[in-house]
């Protein structure tokens, strides 16, 4: 195992060397780095040109200049990274540090959401193959696949940001037409998804339609979109909703992971959910209270780990014969409950945030990664980041979502046609067991590879998305560098994306081995 | 929700596979693929639409290649500058409207479509050729040839397509669409090369290859006559997807300013030039966008249809519902045929079921007919 | 029993989770979650990167805009544009024309934001820097740049002084080759030029904080001592100290995010930098120690860096920014016009579009070597049509620009236009063009290859219009466009005619020289006319404004006579702002919208609840 990883890493470094050599020369030969100066009217233009030639070693031909650059990068191994300077005489390493955070944030969020959505929808389409739902999703995902990303981004800004903000500014009431259309669509999706005969479909349609319409009417009439809280007579009773979500999570997780045949897993799931409900109020006064505790991202992650461990622990303690299932259920329910609490906490600051003088009732931003000079608690700043991330992430995830859906569907269908699935069915396993235990795990194998490959594509997409949304991430670094024939920032961009791509390929290989016992890493 | 295992389920399965055999009996590989492909409604529709677009794009504004200019039936050319009518809004004279200077947007979009299609085809051809050659060499000869080619592929694969495209576009974009497509093609073969190599690695171990080798066939003959035809499915399907990717890559590059440059035009460039017109003169934004989407959508659907045609493994899985129905059919058949239970009997029954519902046959792809035939009976 | 176990376990875990939190359980109100402050946000297309706009490195509009707000000055251009003096900062007085002597005095009480007075020390340092007087002769800065990074090594070798201000001994402060005298009260300096310099009024400002440079470069803590040390070093020509001072002057004010040592942010203008996020935004807050007339009314001005014009418009529409000055296009304008609560102003930019013809070294050899050929081609250029189609939609008052020297509206423009004979080219004259072409002995279909920026849609459209018109007169205008057009300018054999813009940064009269004199640095056309050279030499030595105008008009006339090329239009500029702010009055010259930052006034809608 270790030798495999080391060998792969060495190969990766050699590949990266060759690729950087190629890209460096391509960039260096793509234009004239002195262009802007040649058109300059400055009296000292000759000195400027000479200064730039010295700064960027333009007197050295590109293939050799690459090695000057490389020796700077080589410094990383002794803790002295030198990515060189831009034409603007800024040290690239500083630019890179600032840019990397934003881009990685964007790519990670959109990738995670795309994976979750893509896999869930892919599975449902595979299980309902050739239903109207399947055809609909197939068409929609092909459509997403065919959309130019910048084209989508312009539309998103227009309707997603300006439109939505106008809606919020106008009081956040949903028009009846929208409610009807949305209800019908939701009902149709559910009916097609649940399936069954005509009568059952009609029932599903009616129930889901009424539920959707009810929720929408409630939200619209109580101004939920302006202040996403559940209030009765002025008292904030959002704990009811939070609790309902936690219990739903417990039931849902149990249904998927163990079914209801045995009672114990369900009880464990509900117990964990109950613990979450019990902790909800005390948490508001302690960890989630900015004046009592200064929250940070690392601590939040730590908290997530602790939460999951607590859930797993409950499963381990009380799981009995179904201990392994109970532990899984406990962990998932704990995680989801924690997630619900955090979402609720962020919802609490929605109104103060959007009514603040910096936001002025238009919370969805079209530009940038944060609101300048916004000062507030961790939750306000998190919300600010989220409102800025919303549109670029959607633009970015649409395309990878389409891919994941298609691949999951194809992969699961292929697995479901294997003989061992027939065998599993034949021995009388429930459909849930067949899909969750036997099929899904194997269907994941090819998806792991796709996800790894997709990272490189996503970063490419991020270049465009960042440009449309005015982010100053890696894409900007790349583009301004390329426009000025300035290889150093371009290479900084490329070395990060190239390394990421190779890293994810390695992870994919390892995941392959972990998921598929037939493959051994050696 | 539990499955009731039927004693005669195995028969149903046998019937199914026999059916499939029956269906393709006496047909060549090409015929089978064609048959399956034409059953894929989306793919066929996409093919028709794409053909229409190609005809429209090339006949309307004519062709201009190497200085030879064949005019089309449309009254304007993409570089004519007629006077601006009504602020450039779409009118009878200019159905897609006009831009600031007065260019007829229909003509411009048609020319852009030509260019985008050309880039797509060139990328497809170059990418496929290099991918096939390198992939087959690598997979067939293995050893150091394989290592060398695969390491080279790794190097190219590390460079994201859009990055390579941008850098190339910054250098060659002003040389016109054909050159851009050519150079893009040089960076787009990696995925295909890997897949072809994979196919070759498996296929070269197969008996028919051994047989050919024993019969004294040269390496070239084995590659071209014996292995490649068997890998054609993978190649065609992935080339289509490559082409769909190419058309979007071109638009993205043109948007970033690294693609086709004026005075030449492409769909991406038209959008990019006019993106500030999105609210004020929407026709400058929607028409080219619509054509990009339609072309990419068509290619994707065709690719999907081809994949299903070459690789029918994704037929409907025998879910519990399907199995119950199949069991029912089998049971009915058994009743009909007087409890005969040998395979041909089942097959012929199922076949007759298929014949009853020919209208439905176009909608589904590579699906065992027995299930389809069963649907009306259960009131789906 | 089982239930009991669950209950006990659950309770135990709840206690454990509570123990984990281990914090003071004081409930907090949600009001504490946001800290408020009001501000105006302006979108600009390039990030700020240097607080010293006088180095060859830092001289960029993006920097000068910000520096304009943070450094007080003796004069500035208003929106007319006319040079205005700010007498609340200081005064200057022309003591004599010949020899040129100017006295600069800073008002009493004018101070840096850290409370230290702005005085002659700062001016003395600025002179030392801009004149290059102490720059070590034959010093090749290259040798002391880090070969890896190109940065100047912080310590120049002993006794080496190098101020990277691009100083030239033949112009500007380079002509002041003696140490200025300092007034007794320490608030004034007198500059003695060695020969007349026509743009002397634009040559000198108060410069950077000498005390900060003294503190940083010489390691002296006390501001007054540091200041004195700088003065002494300059007056004594102490090369050791000046070496350190020049090094810090060159590099110390370059930063792309909030610097660790904020002392370099001291300001003498209405605003000071209080926040700066790399490539995202820079925030300026009112300078409490500012005593001049330009008292700001907006507490905080944030400049956000947004490159894409459409994005800027959408950001304005969405309320993300309050003021924008995007690159103008007809669509930007139309979109802006359709917005509610937005004030839009159209005007001119200081850049003008023009066509130049290659007198020699053209791509098609000799095509423009005859006057008739040049005139014929210029007659085909549809200037009015270009303006009507491309510029009027943006600026309904736009007309052709008819002078290569004067900014439209500036003094002397109208007279020059009337006298130069440019009206011959007011309309396309195909007949005349054909006749002249035939006179020049050029066949129908003669090729003219036009160089322009292929990446600029407007130039592409201009090319298309020109091409159509030229074809009517038998010229075959072909496309020599390139994204690297700037690099191709002046390249022998690359093109026959070029289409691009020159930008004026001031109304100074010395700018014409490099463009039109024989072998001038900006003369890309291989143009040479002894008469022109003489006029330019005269102009550069002329003190009398009336005579200056006459000579400038003479330049315009000779250019038309020689059919050097033709000017087409002034770049249109657009700026727009929301109803949260009033008082903007954009100027064509840099710093465009910012020139009257002190007049910007927040409206009622800008008042925020806290």
Question: Any chance you could write out the topology, listing elements then pairs?
Answer:
The complex is a heterotrimer of chains A (522), B (380) and C (610).
Chain A (H helix, E strand, L loop, with lengths): L1 H27 L6 H4 L6 H12 L5 H13 L17 H36 L4 H14 L3 H21 L6 H19 L3 H24 L9 E2 L2 E2 L1 H20 L5 H23 L11 H22 L4 H26 L1 H6 L19 E2 L1 H39 L2 H8 L4 H38 L5 H10 L3 H29 L7
Antiparallel strand pairs in A: 1-2
Chain B lengths: L8 H16 L4 H10 L2 H20 L2 E3 L2 E3 L34 H37 L1 H16 L2 H12 L4 H9 L4 H14 L3 H8 L4 H38 L10 H8 L8 H28 L9 H17 L6 H14 L12 H10 L2
Antiparallel strand pairs in B: 1-2
Helix pairs in contact in B: 1-14, 2-12, 3-4, 3-12, 4-5, 4-7, 4-8, 4-10, 4-11, 4-12, 5-8, 6-7, 6-10, 8-10, 9-10, 10-11, 10-12, 11-12, 13-14, 13-15, 14-15
Chain C lengths: L1 H20 L12 E2 L4 E5 L16 H10 L4 E3 L5 E3 L4 E7 L4 E6 L13 H12 L49 E2 L5 E5 L17 H9 L4 H14 L2 H13 L19 E7 L3 E6 L13 E6 L3 H9 L5 E2 L5 H8 L4 E16 L13 H10 L2 H9 L21 H8 L9 H10 L6 E6 L5 H16 L2 E5 L5 H4 L8 E7 L8 H5 L13 H11 L4 H17 L3 E14 L2 E2 L18 E2 L8
Parallel strand pairs in C: 2-11, 2-12, 14-15, 14-16
Antiparallel strand pairs in C: 3-4, 5-6, 6-8, 7-8, 9-10, 10-11, 12-17, 13-16, 13-17, 18-19
Question: Concise description?
Answer:
The complex is a heterotrimer of chains A (about 525), B (about 375) and C (about 600). With about 525 residues, chain A is mainly α. Chain A has helices spanning about 1-30, 35-40, 45-55, 60-75, 90-125, 130-145, 150-170, 175-195, 200-220, 240-255, 265-285, 295-320, 325-350, 350-355, 380-415, 420-425, 430-470, 475-485, 485-515, and strands spanning about 230, 235, 375.
What does this 3D model show about the protein?
The complex is a heterotrimer of chains A (522), B (380) and C (610). Helix content of chain A is 75%, strand content 1%. Chain A has helices at residues 2-28, 35-38, 45-56, 62-74, 92-127, 132-145, 149-169, 176-194, 198-221, 238-257, 263-285, 297-318, 323-348, 350-355, 378-416, 419-426, 431-468, 474-483, 487-515, and strands at residues 231-232, 235-236, 375-376. In chain A, strands 1-2 form a two-stranded antiparallel sheet. The model of chain A has no long low-confidence stretch (mean pLDDT 83). Chain B has 380 residues and is mostly helical. In chain B, helix 3 crosses helix 12, helix 9 packs across helix 10 and helix 13 (320-336) crosses helix 15 (369-378). The two termini of chain B are 19 Å apart. By secondary structure, chain C is of the alpha+beta class. In chain C, 30% of the residues lie in helices and 17% in strands. Chain C has 17 helices and 19 strands. Chain C has helices at 2-21, 61-70, 120-131, 210-218, 223-236, 239-251, 309-317, 330-337, 371-380, 383-391, 413-420, 430-439, 457-472, 485-488, 512-516, 530-540, 545-561; strands spanning 34-35, 40-44, 75-77, 83-85, 90-96, 101-106, 181-182, 188-192, 271-277, 281-286, 300-305, 323-324, 342-357, 446-451, 475-479, 497-503, 565-578, 581-582, 601-602. Chains in contact: A-B, A-C, B-C. At the A-C interface, helix 2, helix 3, helix 5, helix 7 and helix 11 of A face helix 1, strand 1, strand 11, helix 7 and helix 14 of C.
């Amino acid at each position: 195992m270790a030798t495999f990883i080391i060998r792969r890493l060495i190969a990766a470094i050699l590949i990266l060397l060759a690729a950087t050599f190629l890209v460096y020369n391509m960039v260096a030969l793509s234009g004239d780095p002195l262009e802007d100066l040649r058109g300059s009217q400055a009296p000292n233009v000759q000195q400027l040109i000479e200064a730039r030639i010295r700064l960027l070693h333009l007197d050295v031909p590109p293939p050799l200049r690459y090695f000057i650059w490389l020796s700077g990068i080589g410094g990383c191994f002794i803790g002295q990274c030198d990515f060189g300077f831009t034409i603007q005489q800024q040290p690239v390493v500083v630019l890179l540090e600032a840019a990397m955070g934003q881009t990685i944030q964007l790519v990670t969020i959109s990738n995670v959401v795309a994976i979750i959505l893509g896999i869930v929808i892919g599975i449902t389409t595979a299980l309902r193959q050739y239903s109207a739902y399947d055809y609909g999703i197939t068409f929609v995902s092909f459509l997403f696949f065919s959309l130019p990303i910048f084209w989508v981004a312009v539309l998103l800004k227009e309707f997603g940001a300006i439109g939505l903000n106008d809606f919020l500014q106008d009081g956040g009431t949903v028009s009846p037409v929208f409610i009807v259309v949305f209800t019908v669509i939701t009902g149709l999706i559910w009916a097609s998804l649940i399936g069954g005969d005509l009568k059952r479909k009609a029932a599903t349609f009616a129930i889901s339609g009424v539920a959707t319409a009810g929720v929408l009417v409630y939200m619209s009439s109580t101004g939920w979109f302006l202040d996403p809280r559940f209030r009765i007579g002025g008292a904030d009773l959002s704990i009811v909703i939070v609790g309902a979500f936690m219990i739903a999570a417990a039931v849902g997780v149990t249904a998927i992971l163990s079914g209801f045949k045995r009672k114990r897993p369900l009880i464990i799931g509900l117990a964990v959910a109950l613990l979450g409900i019990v902790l909800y109020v005390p948490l508001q006064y302690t960890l989630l209270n900015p004046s009592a505790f200064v929250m940070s991202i690392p601590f939040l992650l730590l908290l997530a780990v602790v939460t999951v461990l607590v859930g797993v622990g409950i499963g381990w303690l009380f799981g009995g014969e179904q201990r392994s299932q109970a532990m899984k259920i406990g962990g998932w329910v704990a995680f989801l409950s924690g997630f619900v609490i955090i979402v609720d906490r962020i919802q609490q600051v929605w109104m103060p945030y959007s009514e603040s003088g910096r936001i002025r009732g238009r919370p969805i931003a079209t530009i940038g990664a944060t609101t300048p000079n916004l000062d507030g608690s961790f939750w306000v700043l998190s919300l600010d980041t989220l409102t800025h991330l919303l549109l670029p992430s959607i633009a970015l995830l649409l395309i990878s979502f389409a891919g994941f859906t298609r691949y999951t569907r194809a992969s699961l269908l292929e697995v479901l046609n294997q003989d061992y699935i027939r065998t599993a069915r034949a021995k009388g396993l429930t459909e849930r067991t067949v899909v969750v235990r036997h099929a899904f795990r194997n269907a994941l194998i090819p998806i792991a590879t796709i996800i790894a490959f997709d990272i490189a594509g996503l970063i490419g997409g991020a270049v465009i998305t960042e440009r449309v949304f005015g982010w100053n991430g890696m894409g900007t670094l790349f583009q301004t560098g390329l426009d000025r024939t300035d290889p150093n920032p371009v290479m900084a961009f490329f070395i990060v994306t190239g390394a990421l791509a190779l890293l994810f390929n390695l992870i994919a290989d390892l995941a392959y081995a972990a998921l598929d016992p037939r493959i051994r890493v050696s | 929700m539990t499955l009731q295992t039927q004693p005669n389920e195995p028969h149903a399965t046998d019937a199914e596979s026999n059916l499939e055999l029956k269906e393709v009996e006496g047909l060549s590989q090409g015929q089978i693929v064609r048959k399956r492909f034409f059953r894929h409604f989306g793919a066929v529709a996409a093919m028709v639409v794409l053909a229409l677009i190609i005809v429209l794009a090339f006949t309307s504004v004519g062709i201009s290649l190497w200085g030879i200019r064949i005019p089309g039936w449309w009254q304007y050319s993409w570089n004519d500058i007629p006077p601006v009518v009504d602020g450039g809004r779409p009118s009878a004279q200019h159905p897609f409207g006009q831009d600031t200077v007065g260019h007829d947007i229909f003509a411009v979009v048609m020319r852009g479509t030509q260019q985008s299609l050309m880039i797509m085809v060139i990328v497809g051809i170059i990418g496929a050729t290099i991918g096939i050659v390198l992939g087959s060499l690598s997979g067939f000869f293995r050893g150091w040839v394989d290592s060398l080619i695969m390491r080279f592929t790794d190097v190219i694969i590390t460079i994201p397509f859009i990055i390579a495209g941008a850098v190339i576009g910054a250098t060659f974009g002003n040389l016109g669409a054909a050159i851009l497509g050519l150079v893009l093609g040089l960076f787009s073969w990696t995925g295909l090369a890997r897949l072809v190599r994979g196919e070759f690695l498996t296929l070269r171990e197969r008996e028919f290859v051994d047989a050919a080798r024993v019969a004294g066939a040269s390496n070239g003959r084995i590659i071209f006559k014996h292995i490649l035809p068997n890998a054609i499915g993978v190649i065609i399907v992935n080339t289509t997807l490559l082409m769909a990717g190419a058309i979007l890559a071109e638009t993205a590059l043109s948007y970033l300013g690294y693609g086709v440059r004026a005075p030449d035009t492409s769909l991406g460039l038209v959008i990019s030039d006019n993106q500030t017109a999105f609210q004020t003169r929407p026709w400058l934004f929607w028409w080219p966008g619509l054509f990009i989407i339609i072309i990419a959508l068509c290619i994707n659907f065709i690719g999907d249809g081809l994949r299903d045609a070459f690789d029918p493994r994704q037929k409907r899985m025998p879910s519990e519902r399907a199995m119950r129905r199949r069991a029912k059919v089998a049971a009915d058949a058994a009743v009909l045929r007087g409890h005969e239970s040998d395979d041909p009997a089942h097959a012929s029954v199922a076949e007759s079921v298929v014949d009853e519902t020919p209208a439905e046959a176009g909608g589904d792809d590579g699906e065992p007919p027995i299930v389809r035939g069963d649907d009306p009976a259960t009131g789906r | 029993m089982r239930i009991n176990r669950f209950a006990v376990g659950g309770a135990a875990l709840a206690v454990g989770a509570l123990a984990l939190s281990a914090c003071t359980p004081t409930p907090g109100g949600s009001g504490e979650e946001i800290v408020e402050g009001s501000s105006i946000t302006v979108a600009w297309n390039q990030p700020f990167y240097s607080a010293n706009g006088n180095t060859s490195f830092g001289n960029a509009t993006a920097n000068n805009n910000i520096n304009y707000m943070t450094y007080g000055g003796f004069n500035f251009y208003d929106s007319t544009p006319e040079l205005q003096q700010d007498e609340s900062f200081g005064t200057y007085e022309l003591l004599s024309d010949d020899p040129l002597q100017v006295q600069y005095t800073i008002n009493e009480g004018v101070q840096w934001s850290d409370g230290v007075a702005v005085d002659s020390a700062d001016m003395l340092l600025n002179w030392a820097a801009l004149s290059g007087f102490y720059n070590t002769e034959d010093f090749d800065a290259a040798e002391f740049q880090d070969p890896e990074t190109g940065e100047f090594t912080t310590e120049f070798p002993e006794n080496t002084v190098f101020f990277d201000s691009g100083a030239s001994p033949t112009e500007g402060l380079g002509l002041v080759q003696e140490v200025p005298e300092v007034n007794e009260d320490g608030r004034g300096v007198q500059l003695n030029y060695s020969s007349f310099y026509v743009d002397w009024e634009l040559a000198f400002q108060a410069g950077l904080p000498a005390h900060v440079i003294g503190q940083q470069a010489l390691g002296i803590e006390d501001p007054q001592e540091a200041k004195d040390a700088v003065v002494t070093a300059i007056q004594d020509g102490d090369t050791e100290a000046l070496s350190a001072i020049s090094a810090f002057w060159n590099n110390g004010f370059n930063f792309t995010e909030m610097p660790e040592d904020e002392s370099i942010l001291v300001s003498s203008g209405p605003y000071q930098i209080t926040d700066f996020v790399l490539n995202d935004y820079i925030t300026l807050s009112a300078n409490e120690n500012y005593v001049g007339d330009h008292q700001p009314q907006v507490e905080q001005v944030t400049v956000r860096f947004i490159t894409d014009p459409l994005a800027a418009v959408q950001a304005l529409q969405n309320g993300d920014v309050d003021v924008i000055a995007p690159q103008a296009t007809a669509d930007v304008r139309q979109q802006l016009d359709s917005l509610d609560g937005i004030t839009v102003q159209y005007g001119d930019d200081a850049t003008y579009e023009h066509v130049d013809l290659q007198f020699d070294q053209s791509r098609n050899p000799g095509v423009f070597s005859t006057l008739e050929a040049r005139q014929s081609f210029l007659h085909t250029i549809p200037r009015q049509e270009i303006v009507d189609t491309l510029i009027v939609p943006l600026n309904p008052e736009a007309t052709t620009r008819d002078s290569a020297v004067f900014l439209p509206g500036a003094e002397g423009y109208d007279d020059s236009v009337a006298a130069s004979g440019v009206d011959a080219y007011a309309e396309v004259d195909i007949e005349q063009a054909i006749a002249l072409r035939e006179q020049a002995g050029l066949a129908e279909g003669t090729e003219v290859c036009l160089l322009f920026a292929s990446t600029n849609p407007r130039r592409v459209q201009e090319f298309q219009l020109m091409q159509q018109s030229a074809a009517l007169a038998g010229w075959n205008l072909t496309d020599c466009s390139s994204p690297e057009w700037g690099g191709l300018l002046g390249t022998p054999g690359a093109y026959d005619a070029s289409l691009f813009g020159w930008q004026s940064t001031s109304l100074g009269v010395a700018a014409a020289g490099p463009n039109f004199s024989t072998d001038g640095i900006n003369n890309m056309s291989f143009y040479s006319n002894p008469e022109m050279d003489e006029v330019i030499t005269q102009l550069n030595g002329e003190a009398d404004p009336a005579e200056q105008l006459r000579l400038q008009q003479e330049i315009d006339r000779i250019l038309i006579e020689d059919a050097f090329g033709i000017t087409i239009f002034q770049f249109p500029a657009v700026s727009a702002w929301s109803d949260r702010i009033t008082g903007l009055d954009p100027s064509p010259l840099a710093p465009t919208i910012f020139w009257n930052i002190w007049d910007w006034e927040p409206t009622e809608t800008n008042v925020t609840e806290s």
